[in-house]
Automatic annotation (TrEMBL):
Residues 46-182 form the Tle cognate immunity protein 4 N-terminal domain. InterPro entries: Tli4_C, Tli4_N. This is Tle cognate immunity protein 4 C-terminal domain-containing protein. Signal peptide: none annotated. Pfam families: Tli4_C, Tli4_N. Residues 186-344 form the Tle cognate immunity protein 4 C-terminal domain. It comes from the Bacteria.
């Protein structure tokens, strides 16, 4: 009997992460502490993350590979020469063209080169694929290669609309056209989306996620999701969903200790927070803090979610014991939420038609 109970208890943290929504906690804004915490009010740096600003301990750096923009996942930018970029593109094109598909001449369905430094590949992933097309957008800018990945279904679109592949390619062309390099602490004054090493100029709001590695705690990260025009991103408010999940956990709920729960306003955004400590997937205690708004379907009241998790696995996938006490984790959480704000821009934000 002891072994099954242990398996149930160590599953508490993943289920608590799941209750916040159907998007993985590793997708979107990730803030991971990487240096020793300073108890005496450390100096802070302001970072541009997505369309928002957030203050983090000095020494923090932007993290790559955990961003999404308009349904495309952003790979971590890579430093490479133009010659290396051209060789990579030639190799990819050759491989896709030379690999046969079961029903088409090759894996490559379409190649678009809007300029010598921008390449878009629409291709099958496998020779037997038939339902999903991958759309990969590459752009080289001053010694850095950027890569965006998206997918398109092959089902028939609504009458009178473009195919899903065409739509994904159009979105990718818009992303690459608005892309430019950006230094870590540069805060643009034009509308757009900040991520590690780059910026996408665009007055229109998309579904977006972004991230930072924070100085202080290698086992902790914060994720932020932004759903611009969602009207209620979930079927129920956060605290209503929490009650149902805790009931579902049954005996396992005894290992989950609530530290704080209730309504909380972050800047102009009214939402709810739920802060607990629970075992992570390795059986080591960590924290799961969630705040979210339901949204009203407008840019003034979008759907937002911010999440802090401690006891996260290290870079080798090993579970970690959190280095934060409950009090330290709550203090970090309050500092994150209190500093979260919309980035001011030189021109008024435009809304979608």
């Amino acid at each position: 009997m002891g072994k099954p109970l242990r398996l149930i208890v160590t599953a508490a943290m993943p289920i608590l992460l799941w209750l916040s929504g159907d998007i993985s906690s590793r997708q979107g804004l990730h803030i991971i502490n990487t240096a020793q915490a300073n108890e005496s009010a450390p100096a802070v740096s302001t970072f541009c993350t997505g369309r928002f600003l957030i203050d983090m301990p000095a020494g923090s750096v932007l993290s790559g590979g955990n961003y999404r923009y308009d349904f495309a996942r952003l790979d971590k930018p890579r430093a490479m020469s133009l010659e290396e970029f051209e060789a990579e593109m030639a190799t990819k094109e050759k491989k896709l063209r030379s690999t046969k598909h079961e029903t088409e001449p090759s894996l490559l369905r379409l190649l678009i080169k809007s300029d010598p430094h921008s390449w878009i590949f629409a291709h099958w992933e496998y020779d037997f694929s038939e339902h999903i097309v991958l759309v990969d957008g590459y752009r080289w800018i001053d010694g850095t290669r950027f890569l965006f990945r998206s997918k398109a279904g092959m089902s028939k679109p609504p009458s009178g609309t473009k195919s899903y592949q065409e739509d994904a390619i159009d979105r990718m062309q818009t992303i690459l056209a608005g892309l430019r390099k950006r230094s870590t602490h540069e805060i643009p004054t034009e509308p757009g989306y900040c991520f590690e090493g780059g910026f996408i100029a665009n007055p229109e709001w998309e579904m977006e996620e972004a991230g930072i590695d924070i100085a202080g705690h290698p086992d902790a990260y914060v994720s932020v999701w932004f759903y611009p025009l969602s009207l209620r991103a979930h079927s129920q408010p956060l605290l209503d969903r929490v009650g149902g999940v805790l009931q579902m956990l049954g005996r396992m709920a005894t290992s989950v200790h609530a530290l704080r729960r209730g309504d909380r306003q972050v800047g102009p955004y009214k939402g709810q927070e739920f802060l607990v400590t629970a075992p992570n997937s390795g059986g080591l205690r960590g924290h799961s803090f969630i705040w979210e708004t339901e949204g009203e379907g407008t840019l003034d009241a979008p759907a937002l979610k911010i999440e802090l998790t401690t006891g996260h696995r290290d870079k080798n996938g090993n579970p970690q014991q959190t280095r934060l006490t409950n009090e330290q984790a709550m203090k970090l959480w309050d500092e994150v939420l209190d500093s979260f704000r919309l980035r001011p821009v030189a021109h008024p934000q435009e809304t979608r038609p």
